[in-house]
Amino acid sequence: MDTPNHKLRSLVSLSLRNLSLNTPAAHRPRTKTIDDEALPTTLKSPAKLVALREQKHRSLEHSRSSQNLKSVHEDAVVDDLPHGEHEGNGRPKTPQRPALGKMRRRSTLEWANATPQRRQERLENVTAERMADVFFSLHVGGVEEPVYVSEVVEKTMNPTFRHIDWSACGPGITRSSSMIIRIWVKSAKFGDEKWKQLMEMRVDMTALSFLGKSLEHNQTSLPPNAVIFHTSSGVYTASSSLSDFKPAATTTKAPITRRTGSTNHARLLPTSSFDALLRLAKLDDSIQDALATRNQIAAELETLVGTHQTALEDRDRVPEAEDRMKTIEYAKKTVQKQVEKGRRQTEEKREALLSRRSLMKADLERRDAQAKEMGPAKVENLHIRDDLVTRKRAITAQRRRISEDLSMIYPIAPLPTKSLTFTIRGLSLPDSQDLDAEPPEKVAAVLGHVAHILQMLSFYLRQPLPYPVIPRSSTSTIEDPISLLKTTASTTQKYGDERTLRTYPLYSKGVPRFRFEYGIFLLNKNIQILLEGAYGLRVVDIRQTLPNLKYLLYVATAGEGELPARKAGGVRGLLRGATPDLRRVGSEESTGSALSGLLFSEGKPAGKAKDAVESLRRTVGKANG
Description:
Elements: E1 11-17, H1 46-54, H2 116-130, E2 132-139, E3 148-149, E4 153-156, H3 171-174, E5 178-186, E6 196-204, E7 208-212, E8 226-231, E9 234-238, H4 274-307, H5 309-374, H6 377-409, E10 412-414, E11 422-424, E12 427-429, H7 440-460, E13 469-470, E14 477-479, H8 489-495, H9 498-501, E15 503-505, H10 513-535, H11 545-557, H12 588-600, H13 609-624
Antiparallel strand pairs: 1-8, 2-3, 2-4, 2-5, 5-6, 7-9, 8-9, 10-11, 11-12, 13-14, 14-15
């Protein structure tokens, strides 16, 4: 099939098949393997020639030789020999035996015992030698620079390049039918990293050989470095690429005929008529004229647009300016609203400031008047402040004296026979975990003394107890106004109201054990709170009732200076006109009656406060003695 009227614009892309970096030897015949039969010294006989003729159409096998042996044309049979090379009787020439003294070639099986590693290395070396980086360039006569340069396809033997873009070329180039193709390669075989020109081919687009619609449908064997042209009508190759590379022969046996004359392998096929070609040429001229007209109109439009570019830009800027004006107007209204709001806020703040100034002025005048009134009282305030400091010191001293009196009335002393065990008025109180070590009556009496001391100290130290106590000697109780223990319905019905449920006994006889133990716990908490609240001291173990109370009295009586004397009327018994005779000695009942008369009588003072204190101390000493 011929390819008339092919131009450069018809070329879509290029492909290169069977890339070969070596030029094939000119003396090697095509379609024939290098084998032992090509040796000059091979013995030829009529029987062997007949065997060769029978095996002529069989498939060719690869040679097992390791050398490229030179080929020798053997004498063919009568039908295969060219004209003029036969004997007169039509028989083939007699084969000559090999001459003696010929060197025997080396073994042809040197790879038979090679290791797999050696074979793999050989395969990789052969592959690396045959693969290369490839690109091509297209050149047209009259143009110095290439009209197109393809991309680089790396590490390949059959590169297929991308589609050619002719948009940058003018009609003078695209309408040309001849071009020059230069193939450039770069391979490790050359030993450098430079690009080298592999081949240069002058191509006439009207003289290409048709291969098929695509390469997938191609049944023709291609020679090394075959250039494939992809066009809109199919796939073509240059005629020179197939001139010395014939397709493989078929396996069908054919009668042997004499060769006469020269052989023309080109196929003659019918083509289009002259009228059709003329119409096609006219259509192509019309298309090219239309393209030229389009380009001219486009150039004129570009010139016209360039001439009125300023006016067009001004027209495009008008909508932008209008949008900007709208934005400015909106911003202006927003700012005006903000300004009005700011003015209102300013007026409100100004009025508030005027009101504050008037109030501050009135307050300043009032303060000036008060300062004038307080001027004469400053001297008196100094005396009052000094008197307050004196009274605080006196109160502290009186608290020390009262605490000393309480410690004398309820003496707490350690028990020599047992560590960390104390007695109060001769009655010992064990640890809260060992209350059964003493009789319950004695324990109840000790807890009554402790409750009485705590009530007195809370009054004199002005430190209220969180758990109020009701001292009644051995039947004292304590209340818990903070929390209420969970009880059953029968217990609630037994105690009646809530106040009775919140009252816990400080005696163990006839009451539930847990209520008695909880009452001791509340009593110890009172001691802890008095130490922490009044003096800021920390209690190590609240279960030690008497040691903690002893510590509380010790801290309360500590201080600088002597204890102050009791003031006149400090003891109601001293207010009576008749003072009991404290010098009388007798039984314990008389001593207790004298002490009770001293503490709770309603008489007038009969002497100085110091004498009353001394008398009280002597009486307490006699009672303890």
